[in-house]
Amino acid sequence: MTTMIASHLALLVAMSLIVVVLALLLMALAVVPAVMTVGSLALALGVGYHYLAPAPHGRAQDRRRRPLPRWTVTPATPRELDGPRWTQAWPTVPSPGEIPAVRERVAAVLDEWEVCGEAAEPVLLVVTELLTNALEHADAPIQITLGLGPAFVRVQVRDAATEPPQPRRHGPASVRGRGLQIVAALALRHGWTPDPHGKTVWADVPTRWPT
User: Fold this and answer.
1) Domain limits of the chain?
2) Residue 131 in contact with residue 95, Cβ under 8 Å?
3) 98 with 182: CB under 8 angstroms?
4) Contact, 205 vs 118, CB < 8 A?
């Protein structure tokens, strides 16, 4: 009798354990879809925020929104020049094909002033950009003047247009439109001076660069 009771109790305990295990398994199976659903929702929200939220201010956006270098009305001070001067003028707008010849004459002048080699390259580039800008956007007569300062060469381009020099925004693939920005980057000082018959755009280009 005692043995029969013990067998029934063991069977009852085993069945109870089986029921508990099955119940836990069913609960687990019910929880997994819920967890997957919550995870999927979180992932969707994250992806949606990535595409719909405003993009962070990265370098490309900073480059687009960065203010262009200003060309303010600033007269070039004559007393800052203590060396020789050189001038060339055109009564009509010359063709862009003349710019290489002007560069050669400017290089010869700079060599006489003992501004040569790497020290002359920034001056030649500024001459090219300012003169090109005048040929494309200004009116005749056009005049270019170089003056030697203590540690810089002043490049001045005068024309008969009254509109101020205006840097223009450009796309990454643009090959033109960077002239005034290049000049501003190379110059110690730059500006423009209006007059009743036009304007003078100028830039002081250093002749002593850090090594």
Assistant:
1) 1-53, 63-206
2) no
3) no
4) no
| CATH class held by domain 63-206 | alpha beta
Amino acid letter for position 168: R
Cross-strand pairs, 198: 195
Residues 6+ positions from 147 with CB-CB distance below 8 Å: 81, 83, 84, 85, 153, 154, 156
Q: What is the pLDDT of residues 41-69, one digit of tens each?
A: 343 334 333 333 444 444 444 445 555 55
Any residues with CB less than 8 A from the CB of 201 and at least 6 apart, and which?
71, 130, 133, 134, 156, 157, 158, 159, 165, 191, 192
First to last CA, the chain: 108
Candidates 99, 104, 114, 76; CA nearest to 195 is 76
Mind listing the pLDDT tens digit for each residue in 9-34?
555 555 555 544 455 544 544 443 44
Residues with Cβ within 8 Å of 134's Cβ and at least 6 positions away in sequence, in order, are: 142, 157, 159, 201
Spatial CB neighbours of 132, under 8 Å, sequence gap ≥ 6 = 96, 99, 179
Looking at the DSSP bridge assignments, the partners of residue 38 are none
Spans of the chain, pLDDT less than 50: 19-21, 25-26, 28-63, 173-175
Q: Is the omega angle on the peptide bond into residue 141 within 30 degrees of 0, that is, cis? A: yes
